[in-house]
């Protein structure tokens, strides 16, 4: 049995866990990261791709912006469309800032490299990760390392950055806390395709058959989504059927716009869920990112929220563990939840406006809301403000 002393035991090596370890390391606070999956698995996961400009500024400030600034694409806004109409919302014009397209897997690579440079311990392929004594002065985390050897981390704080399915949220809820939850009666079928995007910026489409989204990863790789039923069998859709449905919903053939097709590199059905756990802290356990809250993907907020949590939690743990000042740590949950609820509301609002549910009355309300959002500068600015993102310190 190996026992390791550290300041912060971080569970999960996704963007939240790795960025937290980076922020702590820069300020001389030691951490150990424990991750269930292999490094190759974590770095190849296909996830979202939109970063708010304040998030990019923050990554820049902490030395993680070099490749991002070079390779990310600035998007000034998005297109909103429904049959017969497509409108561009220019966020830069509306609220003075756009968003950056940069795959989460790219950010994950940058973060892992930064961690390598810091040289602090990171255990991949850890099994049976268990949290102990979260109310005590010295909480601990036990696990089996990749070779099956038991390890104990004795820490001063534990950061639960283990995503939607990790053990930290359950540990917190066993002691305290409430889960607020919203289930949606549909899912997204997502494809990654080897084809140049048929659009310069993202297209969010309302259609009587269901929502569709045209996103992208690079000048040669597109990412597209279709709203499908919850119990959809991925095998029941051929690639051709997927492209046909995307073409209809995205309005191919309207005017001179067409949807280019290409080989499908990856396909998956992504269920929708939305929850918030409050408070985000109990005793010496702090939750951050998807472990504490998950939003539906329509507003592209998941990754941005994870970064924003950690931007609060990092300095809070430094002030407490290095300088003996508990103020920010005690305020963490309330401060983080303000933004979490704002983003949860925005994600719910975008989802509700764009997905086909309910009856024709609902459809007419959605159509009038889309018309209002694209024709009234005040309504357009409200969408732009939330999509382009609030200041980190909101
Ligand atoms: N033990 C250790 N690690 C675990 C465990 C466990 N029992 N369970 C889960 N993990 C790991 C996962 O394998 C994953 O690598 O925790 C990590 C959590 O990372 P993410 O899911 O990426 O969550 P987070 O860092 O909060 O980032 C949120 O990710 O899911 C997307 O859309 C979401 O973009 C958002 C972002
Ligand atoms: C994506 O590129 O995967 C993506 C973009 C915007 C969203 C959701 C997903 O709202």
CATH 4th-level superfamily of the largest domain: FAD/NAD(P)-binding domain
Oligomer: single chain
Sheet having the most strands: 8 strands, mixed
Number of strands: 21
Q: Estimate percent helicity.
A: 25-40%
* Overall structural domain count: 2
Identify the strand order in the major beta sheet: 7-6-15-16-17-14-18-21
* CATH C-level category of the largest domain: Alpha Beta
Task: Give a written overview of the molecule.
By secondary structure, the chain is an alpha/beta fold. It folds into two domains: 2-49 and 103-177 and 279-355, 3-Layer(bba) Sandwich (FAD/NAD(P)-binding domain); 184-272 and 359-386, D-Amino Acid Oxidase, subunit A, domain 2 (D-Amino Acid Oxidase, Chain A, domain 2, 2-Layer Sandwich). It is built from twelve helices and 21 strands. An eight-stranded mixed sheet has the order 7-6-15-16-17-14-18-21. It has a six-stranded mixed sheet with strand order 9-3-2-13-20-19, sandwiched between helices. It has a four-stranded mixed sheet with strand order 1-12-11-10. α1 packs parallel to α6, α1 (15-26) packs parallel to α9 (302-321) and α9 packs antiparallel against α10 (327-354). The protein starts with a strand and ends in a 6-residue tail after the last helix. The mean pLDDT is 96. The structure holds adenosine-5-diphosphoribose and P-hydroxybenzoic acid. P-hydroxybenzoic acid is lined by residues 48-50, 202, 215, 223, 297-298, 300.
